Amino acid sequence: MEDQKTIVKTYTLTQLNQSVTNWVRDAFGTRTYWISCEVAKANLKGVHWYLELADSNNIDETTAKSSASIWRINTVSITESLKAYGVRPEEILKQGNRVRIKVRVTFHNVYGLKLDIEEVDASATLGDIEKQKQETLKRIKKEGLDTLQKQLYLSPLATRLAVIGSPDTSGFTDFVEELTNNNYFTRFKYKVFPTKVQGDEALSQIVRAINDASKHDVEAIVIIRGGGSKMDLHVFNHYDICKAIAYSRVPVITGIGHETDTALVDIVSFESLKTPTAAAKRFYLKIATFRADISDVNYRIRLAGTNLIGDCKDELNYFTGQLAAIVNSKLSKEKDKLHNRTINLNLAVRQLLELEKNNFNGITQLFFQKVSSRLIKAKENLWDELIAIKSSSQQMLSSQSNTINVIQEKLVSHPNKLIEFNKLELENSWGLTILRIEHFIGNEKVALGFEIDKLKVVDPTRLFEKGYTISTVLGKDINIFNGELVGKEMTTYSNKFEIKSTIKKINKND
Asked: Residue 277's closest CA among 233, 213, 234, 226?
C-alpha cells in the first residue's frame, strides 16, 4: 500500500531560488521599468549605493518595500546626468525624498529580489520639492507670517549681531572677514550660534538657534549659508524655520548663497541678501551711508544757517532802524504824557493837601473848643470841689470846735488823757481829708494830660515840620474863602517862614 503512494519531489532552497532567478532573468532580464517611490534608507559604500525603497497609500500605510542598489558604472552615469540639474546623487537619494527611477528587476539566491537602479529622474524629485515649497508658501501667506518681520524696526547703526550658520564653511568665513575687514566700519560685536546648514540635524538646530538668539541683547539676527543646489538649500524652505523667523522679536537678515532662486526664509525675513558677503556689506554700508547722510545734512544745515544768518542780519539792521525810530517816537509821546501826568499829579497832591489842611484846621478848631470846654468844666469842677472842701473844712472845724469845747470841759477832770485821744482822732481826720484832695487833683491832671497829648498829635507845627504849608487870605483858609481872590494878599505859613504874596491868576483843578 505504501509503495503505491505518490512520491513528492523535494527541492532545496538553493534549487528553488535558482529557479526563481532563472525565471526572473527570462521574464524581466531585458526589460527596464520607471517607478515612483520613497527613499526609506540610503547608504553609500565606496562607489556603490544601497537603498531601501518604499511606497505608501493616502493614509501613510506602507504598501510595498524593496531593496535597491546602484553599481559603480551606473553611479558614474547618474552623477553626470544630475549635474545638468545642479544637484548631486546624495541630494536626490536622501531619506524621505520622493524619487522617480529607472530600475531592472533581479533576483539573487542569497539576497532575494532586488532592483538595480540605472537612471534617476532629478526633475521629478525637484518638482516634488517645488510642490512642497509652494504648499509651505501658501500656508505662510495664509497665516500672515510673511508680514510680521516687516513690521519691526532695525536701526541703520546696528552693531550687535547674532550670527547663525556653520563656522567651518567658506560662506561663514567670508561673512566674518567682510564684517571685520573693510574700509568703512569694523567695530561690530557678534555672537555666533553654530548650526549645521544641511542634513537631517540642520532643521532642529537652526530653529533652536533662532529662538535662542532672540533672547539675547542683539539688534539683528543674521542667518548665512554659502552657495549650494536647490536640494542643499531646501531646508530653508521648511515651515518650522520660517515660523521661527517670523515670530522672532529681533529683525532677521538672511544671506543664503543663491542667485537664481528664492528660499522661503527670504520671504519671511526682515531683509534678504543673496550671499553671506552681501549680508555683511549691508551692515557696514548702512552705517557708512548714515554717516554720509549726517555729514551731508550737517553741511546743508550749516550752509542754510549761514545764508539765513546773513538774511536775518540784513533784516535785523533794517528793523533795528525802524525800531529805533518807533521807540524814539513812542518815548517822546510817553514823555509828554508823563509831563502832563506829573503836572496833574502835583495839582492833585496840592488839592489833597489843601483838603487835608482844611480838615486839619477844622479838627484843630474843634479840638481846641473841646479842650477849652473840658478845661473850663474841669476848672469849674475843681472850684466846686475847693468850695466843697472849704465848706467841709469849715464844717469840720466847726465840729472840731464843738469837740474842742467838749474836750475842754473834760480837761478839767481828765486833762492829759483826753488831749491825747482827741489829738489822734484829729490827725486821722486831717490825713483822710488831704488824701481825698490829692486823689481828685491827680485824676484831673491825668485827664488834662491826655487832652494835651491828643492836641499834640494834630499840632500844626508838626505838619509844618513834615513839609506841609497853610495858605490864608484875610485870616481864612484859601480853600474855604468866598469871594474874589485875584489881587488879594495871601499869607503862606511853613515850618520856617511866613510868606506874603499877591494872587495874580487862579487855575482851577478838575
From this structure: 226
Distances (CA, A) of 418 to 92, 402, 421, 428, 481: 167, 14, 5, 16, 78
Spatial distance between the Cα atoms of 255 and 71, rounded to a whole number of angstroms: 38
Task: Tell me which residue has cell 532575494.
Answer: 112
Cβ neighbourhood burial of 347 (10 Å; 0-12, 13-18, 19+): middle
> Cell 524696526 appears where?
153
Q: What is the third-level CATH fold of 144-274?
A: Rossmann fold (3.40.50)
Residue whose cell numbers read 486839619: 360
Please indicate, yes or no, whether the overall pTM of this predicted structure exceeds 0.70.
Answer: no
Are the C-beta atoms of residues 165 and 175 closer than 8 Å to each other? yes
Residues 6+ apart with CB under 8 A from 4: none
**In CATH, which of 3.15.10.40, 1.10.10.10, 3.40.930.10, 2.40.50.140 is domain 13-124?**
2.40.50.140
The one-character DSSP state at 151 is: G
- Check the CA dihedral 204-207-210-211 and report its sign: negative
Contact 291, 188 (CB under 8 A): no
> Do 116 and 106 form a contact (C-beta atoms < 8 A)?
yes
Q: What is the pLDDT along the chain (510 residues), one digit of tens a residue?
A: 455 567 888 889 888 888 888 888 888 877 899 988 988 899 999 889 999 999 888 777 888 999 999 999 898 999 898 887 778 888 888 887 888 999 999 888 888 889 999 999 888 777 777 888 889 999 999 999 999 999 999 999 999 999 999 999 999 999 999 999 999 999 999 999 999 988 778 899 999 999 999 999 999 999 999 876 677 788 899 999 999 999 999 999 999 876 666 889 999 999 999 999 999 999 999 999 999 999 889 888 988 888 888 888 888 888 888 888 888 888 888 888 888 888 888 888 788 877 877 777 777 677 667 767 776 776 677 677 767 766 776 676 676 667 666 656 665 555 566 556 666 766 676 677 777 777 777 777 777 777 677 666 666 667 677 777 888 888 778 777 777 888 888 988 887 788 989 988 888 765
**360 within 8 A of 458, measured Cβ to Cβ:** yes
91, 60 in Cβ contact below 8 A? no
The gap between the terminal CA atoms of the chain, to the nearest Å, is 174
Q: Is 219 exposed, middle or buried (0-12, 13-18, 19+ CB in 10 A)?
A: middle
Cβ–Cβ under 8 Å, residues 361 and 471? no
Nearest to 125, CA basis, from 98, 96, 90: 98
